[in-house]
Every structure is written in structure tokens, then in C-alpha cells.
Design goal:
rod-shaped
Amino acid sequence: MELKVNDSAVLAQNAYEIRQLGKRMIDDIIKIGRLLIESKNVCGHGNWEQWLKKEFGWTQMTATRYVNVFEMSKSNKLLDLDVPISALYQLAAPSASEVVRKEVITRAKTGEKIKVKDVKEIIVKAKPDPIKIEEIKPVIDLKPIIDLVPSVQLDTWETDSRTQVLKQENQRLASQIQQANKKINGLADEIDELKGQLGDYRKIKGWAEDNAMWDELRANALNGGR
């Protein structure tokens, strides 16, 4: 692609202005993040998301991107970086470690054109490999401790445990039976007392009936059998 001298000058000037605008965009994002943090503190708990939706139509995730960039700017110079805004958001996200940020910033300052996919790859490579279960080794060797434990069979432990449970259940049932016997004996005493009262009542009734009969016979005799 061959360009005229004037065309090359125009393109160079445009590239310069675009970079300057890009720096302004980063600066604006940082300022927006700072203002969002201040606004969040003013809104208070429960009102933050409603305020974002009402004022900008944003979700909390959108606001968090600006806030993350502001937080990252406290320890990193971002205004001179020539990176896409999407890459900047990924770099400021919690998933990117400080090591990743320093690597990207260093490479960008040397003039390398950092793309979004480059930041993604650096973040993935920086993550530690997952630990396999078979590679996990116990911190303490339990064999010497196990050797000190008496060699008692598991079934013996189970038998002793069941025997203990049966003994406790037997004691509980024996206590309930003893309490029930006390109640039965108490009822038996009450029954005997009621029987005695009933016998006394019958005797009194019999005497009353006998007295009434003798009174009638004596009255007949006095009247001459009339």
C-alpha cells in the first residue's frame, strides 16, 4: 500500500490524536470509577443498584468495571498505556493478579500492541495448575500413631457398643417397671380400702333393715295382731 506524503502525514496526525483521545478515555474511566465509589457510599445499602438503573440504565457489573479500573490506577500508571478499553477492564478485574498486571503494563510500555486476547491468555497462563488428588500427601505420617493403638477388631468394638446400649435400655425398662409396680400397689391399696368401706356400708344397711323389721313386729304385737 503506497501512500502519498500528504496522506502519510494525515494518518500520522490522526493516529496521534486517537491515542490522545484514548488516554482521555482512560482518564475519564478512572474519574467515573472514583465518582461511583463516592455515590455508592452516599446511596447507602439497598439503594445503589436502583440509583445506577435510574440514572444510567447500568447494572452493578457495568459500574464495577469502572470502579476496578480506578482501584488499579492507585498502584499503576494507566494513562500512558496503549491498550483497548476491554483489555483494561479485564486487567483490572479481580481474576487478574498483580503479576499479570505488571507483565501487561511492562509489555505495553515497550511499545507492544496488547490486544484483548493477549490479556486473556496471560491471565490463563498465570493461573496455577489444579492439584491432582493423587498428588496430595498427608502433612503428618499417621503410621507411628496407628501402631500405638491396640489391635482390637472392629467387630469387637461394635459388640461392646451394642452391649452397652442394651444394658442402658434394660436399666431404663427396669426403672419404668418399678414405677408401674408402685402405681399398681397404690391402686391395690385403694381398692382394698374401698372394699372395706363397701363392707361397712352393707353391714350398716343390714342392721338398718333388721331394726326396721323388729320395729314392725313389735308394733303388730302391741296392737294385738290387728
